[in-house]
Design a protein that fits this description.
The structure is a single chain. The protein is α+β, with helices and mostly antiparallel strands. It has a single domain, classed as Aminopeptidase (3-Layer(aba) Sandwich). The chain contains 4 helices and 5 strands, in the order E-H-H-E-E-E-H-E-H. The longest helix has 15 residues, at 94-108. The protein is globular.
Length: 147
């Protein structure tokens, strides 16, 4: 049975391991000092950014990070920024339930849309995403900004 809940302080080590694996998947192997501490503090505060964990048999096997932002063309929208499940949990409905939980949360906050990005070649994830959401065909462009 999969349970989805907000992350508790005791979940920090498992969350950090999964988030590090997620970052490595996207080629971000080295994070700046304090990165995980800062993100964890934001998630625990639950004001600007939010996180949920998926547990199976009491062990965290998936995480999701998300936040609300305004839109120029609608009411607020919910952006799912990070979604990751441990390799052994894949194909068991964990990611689907994490997405559903964020959808429910966003609806309760008055958001009119939930959306996310993934890499075009992330074929495994896209098998699920194509079932639970609509690909609107947008391409993302990015410019790094230096402080």
């Amino acid at each position: 049975m999969i349970t989805i809940n907000a992350l508790a302080p005791a979940d920090r080590p498992a969350w950090e391991r999964l988030f590090a694996e997620y970052n490595a998947f996207y080629g971000r192997d080295t994070m700046p000092p304090g990165f995980y501490d800062d993100a964890w503090a934001e998630f625990q505060a639950g004001q600007r950014m939010h996180a949920l964990g998926a547990k199976v048999d009491g062990e965290i096997v998936g995480i999701v990070h998300f936040f609300v932002h305004p839109s120029t063309t609608s009411a607020d929208v919910c952006y799912l920024q990070d979604l990751f499940t441990s390799p052994e949990a894949r194909g068991k409905g964990v990611a689907r339930q994490l997405i559903a939980a964020v959808k429910e949360w966003g609806t309760s906050q008055g958001c009119v849309q939930l959306y996310w990005h993934t890499k075009q070649d992330n074929h495994t994830a896209r098998l699920l995403y194509d079932k639970v959401a609509e690909n609107k065909g947008f391409i993302q462009y990015s410019i790094p900004l230096e402080p």
